[in-house]
Amino acid sequence: MKEKPSILILNTGGTIGMMMDPRTKALKPVNFNNLFDLIPTLKLFNYNIDHYCFDPLIDSSNMNPETWANIARVIEKKYELYDGFVVLHGSDTMAYTASALSFMLHNLNKPVVLTGSQLPLGMIRTDGRENLLTSVEIAAAKDEETPVVPEVCIYFENQLFRGNRTHKFNAQNFEAFRSFNYPALADAGVTLDYHKDKIRKPNFKKLKVYDRFDDNVTILKMYPGISPNAVASIFDTKNLKALILETYGSGNAPDYPWFIELLKNAIDSGILVVNVTQCQVGTVEMGKYETSIALRNAGVISGFDITTEAAVTKLMHLFGNNKNTEDVKVMFLKPIAGEMTEA
Ligand code: ASP
Question: 6-209 maps to which CATH number?
Fold first, then answer.
């Protein structure tokens, strides 16, 4: 007889684990060991469901490389005991955590589904109930003995996305996430429709966790009127190893001589500069316009259609595990976990 699926729910905090403080009327994180009291329907799954609660529970604005590593280490420790993992997480930085986990968990062959909610679980109209129930079902789903979604993903409001392709685009609606440059992995309607050709295949190798990050990475968003002082000061950041240049359109930035010179000097001094577009849909195409030829000539590399969330976590991950900028540059240009489409 087949064993029941076993699922571990990791609670990191966020709205899904928050309640209204009666005194301040502000949302505050709560420990909920009473998950089954809040969502009794969970009992209807014929699964073994366990719950791991981080202490303290945090608003996802307080996530950082250390907390990402803590999540990865729990998954590593419990990996053999469970068929899948559901991570309850605030939606604000969920796309960053999902990206970071996708880079940390090499040879992941089981589902890691991040979910959260816009309204806390205790509220009548909460979106957390459906998000959690469907995430648990996805984490348990198998084809024969093989997990259907062996990757780090985000489930939110009826759609399952590859985690490192997501962006939180809506602060109000239940439909908070989009994956602009990669199709959904599944749609949840009357049935759960998996788009299997879009889902990564398991490689059946042993999980290996790379939990080191280097935070000497930063982001510069271009805007008309940016001053030489602003650009110079960001390149002056102590120990800076990489900078994501958020450019216009298909990867364009001004070709003013002062700007190109600052870029060139930074790159010549060993800082890796990656071109990521401010647009949500589409890819960087350096060379399409003259303004991006100047960037390419200065030594800026393309981020193709990667999100800023995935680019920043990928660079922190790569520098955390490699010393040499040239090696990081070569590795950055190749997808690690389906986070970008190469030209
Ligand atoms: N501020 C919350 C957080 O990201 C919002 C949410 O949970 O959706 O932790």
Answer: 3.40.50.1170
